[in-house]
Design a protein that fits this description.
By secondary structure, the protein is α+β, with helices and mostly antiparallel strands. 54% of the residues lie in helices and 11% in strands. Helix 4 packs parallel to helix 6, helix 5 runs antiparallel to helix 6 and helix 7 runs antiparallel to helix 8. The chain is flat. The protein starts with 16 loop residues before the first helix and ends in a 7-residue tail after the last helix.
Length: 257
Amino acid sequence: MPLDVSTCFDEEGRVLASVLRTVEGSTKDSRTDAAEQAKKDGNMAFKRQEWKNAVGHYARGIAMLESEEQPSEATAPVQTLKFECGSKITMLVNDGGLQMEGMISCVNGDGTYDVMLDCGDDHDNVPENKLRLIENTGDNGDQQDLLAALYLNAARCMYQLELYTMGEKLASNSIRCNPTNGAAFFVRGRCRLGIPMLDDARADLRQAVAADRANAEFRNTLAECQRKIKQRNESNRETARMFLNYCREEGISASTL
């Protein structure tokens, strides 16, 4: 049975303890299978535009995976493997958080690397702190991808329900699980556009376009966001101009404000 959308997540987009308790006692394999089925059920509800039912299914799938103990950042193993020519990597392409996959094309002697991204772009002299090795994570990697998809689909539902703040939190959780997916930045950008958080929305939408330059929806939404920012800035300038005119007419100096 799907869960009630109002009792699925806390204000940070985390699955509530009451949802986690519904999956206690399940084995790891059965939880993964159940999460896959929850995603399928959620997708069917999404296609029928049953947004609340879809969220309930996705939340149950998330609970199946999040209920397994996850290593904290403090206890997570430190990356010790070295980059070599041909190593598969993800690269932080800018400060917005988007990572793109590629490979090391050259190991330089100064602690930097030349990188060829899967999209075809070449980057020279990339510092090591912007790179992470893609390791063979097996089932754990598959579970992270599934978890990212469940969070993202739940965020899409929240957008349709005009619950933009919750959608923004869920999309952020999806990005945490998979920072290479431009669609997650797009959904978070649209939610931030609805809040509105225009400057943050623009940053996210730029990440989405960087990940998939051919996607017309990404480009058009970014253009819409930029138009709204322009309108806001023009409105702010007009308000400031009117206020200054009022001050001059009333003989109010800046020192008395």
